[in-house]
Amino acid sequence: MARFRSWVSMALAGAIGLTLAGCSSNGGKEAEDASKKATSGKAAVSTPRWTFAMVTHSGEGDTFWDIVKGGAKQAAVKDNIKFLYSQDDQAQQQAQLVDAAIDKKVDGLIVTLAKPDAMKAAVARAEKAGIPVITVNSGSAESKKFGALTHIGQDETIAGQAVGDELTKRSRKNVLCVIHEQGNVGLEQRCAGAKDHFKGKFSKLYVEGTNMPDVQSQIESKLQSDSSIDTIVTLGAPFADTAAKAKKSAGSKAEIDTFDLNATVATGLKDGTLGFAVDQQPYLQGYEAVDLLWLYKYNADTLGGGRPVLTGPQIVTKESADTLADYAKRGTR
Fold first, then answer.
1. Is the dihedral of CA 43, 44, 49, 50 positive or negative?
2. Residues 180, 58 share a domain
3. Which region holds residue 319: left if phi is over 0, alpha if psi is between -120 and 50, else beta?
4. What's the mean pLDDT when you consider all of the chain?
5. 156-169 and 185-197 helices, crossing angle to 10°
6. Other CB atoms within 10 A of residue 251 CB
């Protein structure tokens, strides 16, 4: 974990106005005070009231994206930004939302590239219109090629490899990776990275992530048909709880591990329901995206030097969950 913190710190060097929770014994209180001040409605800067739009491929009822939005909104208040948010899990509709933001002549755009081919033309149109774009969360490989200033998130292949290493370290033998959105390049990269570094048997299960009862049924059926599966890896925090229910219904002893962190996952880590989680710091993704757009508009600053600004991965276990639990409860981790 110390190694993780060191390279993330280097990646984020030069970013201003950012409060990192939990860095010292009084860090939690300082972060809480900063959070209250930033969301009180008073901007910390006197720059023009620019308008930034964030358009994501997911978000409705998803705790992960609630955290991303929370970070973006806090930075927007601090930076005197009018913040607009929209999302659609259908790639063409997401591209249309980007086009709508361009038509509104926003001053900056934040977009995800879960399905990059569908977003390429929209991002190009923003660039042609002189609107700076930052990509977050997904699409790190395409971000620079599409003309974005930088990408903020974790490298999904590297994150997957970290999971594969952790699974091997835990002596897991037969892993099932549950992909909840077909065609999402980031999810595929997570599974592929894990498979590449895992020393045992590895398979994938595609489910429809918008239908949790069906997801539970499919995982349960898979566990019943193959009792040798000793590990389930879900690719989003809400699916970890569903996998745990499927495990119980199937009478399985499989370990449940997951990407992403929320309050429920933190509790599951503490009580042993879950083995480990991979945190990519979604709050930081939203916060830094707004802050870096503001820095670009204000001072022509960019961060990353042409490479993604990495916010993960961090492996969180039962031993480290206590440190982050309070932050997860308040919706910032």
1. negative
2. no
3. alpha
4. 88
5. 40
6. 10
Taken as a whole, the chain contains a residue count of 333
Terminal alpha carbon distance of the chain: 16
For residue 320, being part of any structural domain is answered with no
User: Both 85 and 195 in a single domain?
Assistant: no
Residue 316 lies in a domain: no
Question: Tokens at residue 119, please?
Answer: 């977003």
Query: What is the count of structural domains for the chain?
Result: 2
41 and 130 in a common domain: yes
Q: Which domain holds residue 19?
A: 2-154+281-302
Residue 293 lies in a domain: yes
Greater model confidence, 30 or 152: 152
| Token duo for residue 255 | 């370990």
Contacts of 160 (CB under 8 A, 6+ apart): 189, 190, 191, 192, 193, 194, 195, 196, 197
CATH code of the domain covering residue 18: 3.40.50.2300
**CB neighbours of 10 closer than 8 A, spacing ≥ 6?**
none
Summarize pLDDT for 112-164 with one digit per residue, the tens.
999 999 999 999 999 999 999 999 999 998 999 999 999 999 999 999 999 99
Residue 191 lies in a domain: yes
Q: Tell me the CB-side half-sphere exposure of residue 307, using CA atoms within 13 A.
A: 9
pLDDT, tens digit, for every residue of 78-104?
A: 999 999 999 999 999 999 999 999 999
